[in-house]
Design goal:
The protein is mostly helical. The protein has 35 helices and 4 strands.
């Protein structure tokens, strides 16, 4: 028996009854979890503790295992541990600093798990005690600020950011996290900017810094003055803003790359072969399997930058220095080269820096192109909640861009032409577009393409009304700019007109189902007024007189849809139901469209009769249109080129609160499972000097 025990690693026969061996740091934790002061028996207790490798799991587990009363009994020791962690952050030797940072992460997470249902005040009291909270948190924030701004270890900076993210996301609703009051008072904003402005720091820590900033900006943003909002809104340093743009572009670009890889893998797989054999009936199902985790945190950062800082708008159209191109190398280019998203096939150029691995189908790129491509992916499938939120946020960002005068200037600039390869949803009735045939055009064309693509592909039972409204508003705002500045954009306007008419047709075909959930007349009115905008002001912004003629041709060709719409809204506006008023607005808005149809249709029928033609060609109809403009009478409609500007606080507060909650939970989960391993950190500081 004794021999067996020896083989099992036991020292003596009686050792089976002994407690299992514990590492020293665990024994020291156990001392902290008693009611006695651990430094009474060992004056060097705290000094020794921070030389020990932290056991995160044990420390967090120990905290979680205690009930409320037991935790209160050892509150003094928890406070003492927290304070000694803060003191250790000022130590010269990095081993102590690393262990202190790790311990703080474990303490914060452990106490949070125990206090999920309680307020932030209780968490502060449990960690530091109310009486010492202000001074302790001031010292903590100053130490973290110093470590982030110092020339020292990148690993320490990384751990500081993890700790800050841990602090910020300690509650699901960050506005209920009272600890953040101390992060507001003792700002680390400048430290975050310093990280973003330095190429080395940005490469190592840019992502965490940008996510941290996005979360801090959302702390009680509607209830009080948030210093991070104020400071972010006035940043004008070019290097810092470009740095932030680069981090966001890199994250979005990585998503685009992963999606493209999965798409190619999917198309070359068994299912693709099966689809080719059976036909195209499975295309939609096949596409559903292509799923990459969306990144709402980085999208929120882009939104806050665009929404709060006018200077950031310039970053959208700029190529970063790290995105510079060099001539093609003599060695063969790999099958999936790491090149930026822009205008030419992959064989022409490669990127000169590994900092921003972008997609392979472009020569030059900027943040806006990367964002548009990202949007084209996430907006394909709005059935998934995360993608729905991402799609909505993409449209909100585009709304802010479409309202900005400077953004519109570069969107419509004829000297800034790009070939933007947007993702298109596979559909049975259309072929996949050949990427290489895309023309180089001003960036506004890609925005309009994205809007048209959304309109065409989301007419379904679970109708995303809110997204459609935003989509039409973006088109309207772009048209208002074109009308105001007399920009004659060479765009395939027919695709937009066709998409809008089909949308009206869909609303009418599904009137009963849609009216049970939505006020479809709001959307119908917006669509009709887009046509009114073209009819009333099209001569000032359509590229050629023939484009204006084609508008009339489309209205006349599709007149049955407008006639049906008029019949529907007339029926509902003459009843005393709930839709009387919104339907009557559409009735009034249709006046000029009906005037065009009623004026030209008899002329076209007369032309056909006189010339004995049963069916007129497009050119013949256009000839009739051009000959009869003079006798057409239209009413001047007011306010077509006016719109209500975007306002977050009044209309979007609930959406952003829920979005930030979701991001906070996700950031905390990823911190817990992926990022707090010590091995790499301690390798860097493997000797004690």
């Amino acid at each position: 028996m004794a021999q067996t025990e020896k083989k099992g690693g036991l020292l003596r026969k009686s050792s089976a009854s002994k407690k299992p061996w514990k590492e020293k740091v665990v024994l020291m934790y156990d001392e902290i979890f008693t009611t006695e002061d651990p430094s009474k028996c060992n004056p060097r207790f705290w000094e020794e503790l921070f030389l020990m490798k932290v056991n995160l799991e044990y420390l967090e587990g120990k905290l979680e295992a205690l009930d409320g009363e037991e935790l209160m009994k050892i509150k003094d020791n928890i406070n003492c541990l927290f304070q000694h962690c803060i003191q250790a952050l000022g130590e010269e030797h990095p081993i102590r600093v690393v262990n202190a940072l790790q311990t703080l992460c474990a303490l914060i997470r452990g106490v949070h798990q125990k206090n999920k249902s309680t307020s932030g005040f209780d968490i502060i009291n449990m960690l530091v005690g109310f009486d010492k909270a202000e001074l302790c948190m001031k010292n903590l924030m100053e130490s973290l600020d110093s470590l982030l701004c110092a020339e020292g270890s990148e690993s320490l900076k990384s751990l500081c950011l993890k700790l800050l993210l841990c602090l910020v996301t300690v509650t699901d609703n960050i506005s209920q996290n009272t600890i953040l009051e101390y992060v507001m008072i003792n700002s680390i904003f400048e430290a975050i900017l310093q990280i973003l402005s330095s190429p080395l720091s940005r490469r190592e820590h840019g992502y965490d810094a940008v996510v941290l900033l996005a979360l801090l900006v959302n702390y009680r943003k509607y209830e009080s003055v948030n210093p991070y909002i104020v400071k972010l809104s006035i940043v004008d340093d070019e290097a810092t803003l470009n740095g932030m743009g680069l981090v966001i572009a890199q994250a979005l670009s990585e998503y685009n790359r992963q999606y493209k890889d999965k798409e190619e893998e999917h198309q070359s797989g068994f299912f693709s072969a099966l689809t080719n054999m059976v036909g195209s009936m499975f295309i939609a199902d096949a596409d559903e399997k292509i799923s990459v985790q969306t990144n709402e945190a980085i999208l929120l950062a882009l939104y806050e930058a665009v929404h709060l800082n006018r200077n950031f708008i310039t970053v959208l159209a700029q190529s970063h220095p790290e995105m510079g191109l060099m001539t093609t190398p003599t060695s063969p280019i790999p099958a999936t080269p790491v090149t930026p998203l822009g205008t030419t096939p992959p064989s022409s150029d490669v990127i000169s820096s590994a900092e921003l691995p972008l997609d392979a189908d472009v020569q030059t790129s900027n943040l806006l192109i990367t964002f548009l491509k990202y949007s084209s992916i996430v907006m394909q499938d709005t059935k998934d909640e995360h993608r729905l939120h991402s799609g909505k946020l993409c449209l909100i960002i585009l709304t802010c861009i479409a309202e900005d005068q400077y953004a519109n200037a570069f969107l419509h600039d004829d000297n800034m032409n790009f070939r933007v390869n947007l993702h298109r949803m596979p559909m049975r009735h259309r072929k996949k577009a050949a990427d290489k045939n895309l023309p180089c055009r001003p960036l506004v064309c890609a925005v309009l393409d994205l809007m048209v693509e959304f309109i065409v592909t989301h007419m379904m039972k679970e109708f995303p009304m809110d997204l459609y409204v935003r989509c039409i508003q973006i088109v309207h705002k772009l048209l208002c700019y074109q009308k105001k500045c007399r920009v004659r954009l060479h765009y395939t306007w027919r695709e937009l007109w066709s998409a809008l008419i089909n949308l009206l047709k869909f609303l009418m075909s599904n009137e009963t189902v849609l009216l049970a959930k939505h006020n479809i007349f709001t959307l119908a009115l917006m669509v009709v007024n887009l046509f009114n905008m073209f009819i009333t002001y099209g001569d000032t912004f359509l590229p050629t007189p023939s484009s204006y003629d084609e508008l009339y041709y489309e209205i006349i060709r599709m007149h049955q849809n407008f006639d049906n719409l008029y019949s529907m809204v007339l029926r509902l506006s003459t009843n005393a139901g709930q839709w009387k008023e919104p339907a009557s607005k559409v009735t009034h808005a249709l006046v000029n469209i009906r005037a065009i149809i009623n004026h030209f249709n008899p002329k076209i029928e007369s032309y056909a009769a006189v010339n004995h033609i049963s069916q007129l060609s497009e050119d013949q109809v256009l000839e009739v249109v051009r000959s009869n403009y003079d006798t057409l009478t239209l009413k001047l409609q007011d306010g077509l080129d006016q719109y209500e500007r975007y306002s977050e606080q009044h209309k979007e507060a609930a959406f952003f609160k829920e979005l930030v909650r979701s991001i906070s939970i996700n950031v905390r989960k990823n911190l817990a499972f992926n990022t707090l391993s010590q091995e790499l950190l301690l390798k860097e500081f493997s000797t004690i000097s």
